[in-house]
Amino acid sequence: MMDIEFFAASMAEICGHCLVAPGRVLRFTIITNPKAGGFVIQKRWRRHEETLKLYRAKAASLPARQAGPSICSKEKGGPAPGLILTTGPGHASKIAAALIDEIEAGEKAVTGLHPFHLIITAGGDGTSLEVLTGLFHAKPETLSHCVVLRLPMGTGNDGADAAELADALDLLVEPVRIDRARALRLRTATSKGPFLAFNILSVGLDAFVTHMTNKMKGKFPGDSYKLWVDIAALFYDRIYRVDYMDVRALDEKGREIQNFREKVLLLAVGASGHRTYGSHNRILPDDRNVCAVKQMPLLRKVALKGLFKTGEHIRCRESILLSAACMEFRGEHPILAQMDGETALLTKEDFPAAIELTSPVVPVLKPS
Question: Please, which residues bridge with residue 261 across strands?
Fold first, then answer.
């Protein structure tokens, strides 16, 4: 099982020598979901433990810097400096709000440089979604004093900054730059939403798989996503009617790029191309950030479902791939949407709806 004190001590050591925001006083907060797969699956934790030992030694070879835990993490009474354990859905959102308050209070300092906040998420896609959503709504000035790093400590980790922990920790011990990440926003014709995602926002069969995976979480051991993919291939059409949808693709200036009317099995839009979901299914394997898949007979669904793991589905006649800043869609029947693993049901009254790219907002780390 996870040794929480070892994890916290290792991350504090790495942060105390990291190369993020050189010359600034650093405050770090590690928002941790102790029930995430990377902690509770013993084989994964053992691998992470060895990685942490290695990077703790790497960090110790770097000069120490003026760094310490955030006030927020001290007040929350975590098991170790800088660490806050989440207790359930919505908790990471509250922690993010408290951090924003702390950063904004620091901005009022009369003398000296404002502390720079390194916000690390150590959980699954749900934890990072809550934190990034909070930061998305923060003031631009506030965001100039912080950056977020998403460690791959969940089961799927499609929204993390790297698929492997070592690659994510490289962003702390190697020279880096701060970039701004776009979000995806789902707008509806009703008061429902808007909803945000930072990896992939989609509607259709894959959202049903996500919904059922979430619903049965805790009842099935390990990652049940693949099981629900198999079930959905057989039964999705019996639960949700797959009928014609009118779809329009727009560019950054709102000009129409393409339109089509098809029976849409799923429509996925990424914050960029080269995106995965559902434990590294390569739904967007190239530079294009939109994939629509047309309805197909049952036997063909069963035959082709494995291609989404490798990205080979883009060569199938049922796939429509393109790049767009906004995808407008309208249908007559209820359909599920998923936003980085969270789901919502859209009904006829919610149409027309649109999935759109926002401007770059949330500060993230990139290799220098």
Answer: 246
Tell me, yes or no, whether 11 and 103 share the same domain.
yes
What are the residues whose beta carbons fall under 8 Å from the beta carbon of 306, sequence distance 6 or more? none
Non-local (6+) Cβ contacts of 231 within 8 A are: 212
Q: What are the DSSP E strand ranges found in the chain?
A: 26-32, 67-69, 83-85, 116-123, 146-152, 176-181, 184-187, 195-197, 200-204, 244-250, 256-270, 275-277, 281-284, 290-294, 319-322, 326-330, 335-339, 342-346, 353-357, 362-367
pTM of the model: 0.92
In a domain, 366, yes or no: no
Of 174, 199, 228, which closes a domain? 174
Residues 6+ apart with CB under 8 A from 278: 156, 158, 206, 209, 210, 225, 229
Cβ(119)–Cβ(131) under 8 Å?
yes
Dmax over CA atoms of the chain, in Å, equals 69
Owner of token pair 């907060």? 29
Range of the domain at 64: 4-174
Residue 282 lies in a domain: yes
Segment 184-234, tens digit of pLDDT: 999 999 989 899 999 999 999 999 988 888 776 655 555 566 676 777 777
Q: Annotate 171-200 with b (16+ C-beta within 10 A) or e (fewer).
A: bbbeebeeeebbbbbbbbeeebbebbbbbb
Element (H, E) at 106: helix 91-106
User: What is the per-residue pLDDT across 20-38, written as a single tens digit (0 to 9) for each?
Assistant: 999 999 999 999 999 999 9
C-alpha to C-alpha distance for 329 and 96, rounded to whole angstroms: 33
Last residue of a domain, one of 143, 174, 205: 174
The residues with which 330 forms a beta bridge, in sequence order, are 246
Asked whether residue 317 falls in the same domain as residue 194, the answer is yes
What span, in angstroms and rounded, lies between the C-alpha atoms of 353 and 351? 5
Residues 196 and 333 occupy one common structural domain: yes
- Chain centroid to Cα 45, Å, comes to 21
**Terminal C-alpha separation, the chain:** 35
Tokens of 107: 């901005």
